[in-house]
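Just wondering, does anyone understand what follows?

——
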Amino acid sequence: MITCIDLLALGLMILILSGLLFFPLTLYKKVSPNKALIVTGISRKVVVGGGTVVIPFLHKAQEFSLEPRIINVNSRRIISKDKVPLSIKAVATAKIDDSSTESILKAAQKFMDKIELEINEYLREIIESHLTTVISKTKFREIVENSNSLMEQVLISAQKDLSKDGFQIRSLTVKHINVPYELQDIALGKTVNIEINQKYNTKDQKELKIEIQLSIKYNGEDFSIFLGNYKENIEKIILNLMIEFLKRVEYLQIIENKIEVENEIKNAIKTILNSKSVDIVTISVVIE
């Protein structure tokens, strides 16, 4: 005959056996394929897209995202090797190297307690720093004509830093390269035209009108003359040159030797502009 005590004992036994059976299941932690489970404590373990048993008080488990990150880079003021001021917009894809447990642990150690915005900003600063370094060693024409090759250099350079934190750069693409509007033609090596019609005083203080027409190209060595309004800068250079040149010559000497003087002026302009990274394509000087 089964007594109440027997039933109570049986129920207690079933309860204990059920607990022993289901207790491990309640300790089993699982993560999706785009996350890592970082288990620390009496042992260290990294689980990607799977699960493991986590024992309270003995283990600590935290989830860590392995999703790719889109990093927008907007460098607003970079100076190229030949002193061209420019801005570059680029987009990078960065991701924790989930093929390496060591890389995941490095990234988790540094970024586990950071919010997404902080992590992305950290990555952006590193990429932009390497972009600035590479651009400063490259001439503007090369930047425009070989932007893909340039981004490959930046990617390789930045990867050395980011790998220390467990990250990989999967791609880096230029979206836009810009120079100030007024400098675009000359910075790209296009021929630009400049006309100067100016009255000057000769040595004997007589007024002389000189018309100068130039077609010029930037030769890619030093862009400093073009910072600001390059036409105004060149006009100032020629104005100072003409003042110095004509104050040594009297009016009658110029009128009697116009062709010779015009050629002297042409040569003087060529000499001074060539020394300032300007190639003269055509030049015309007319004395009136």
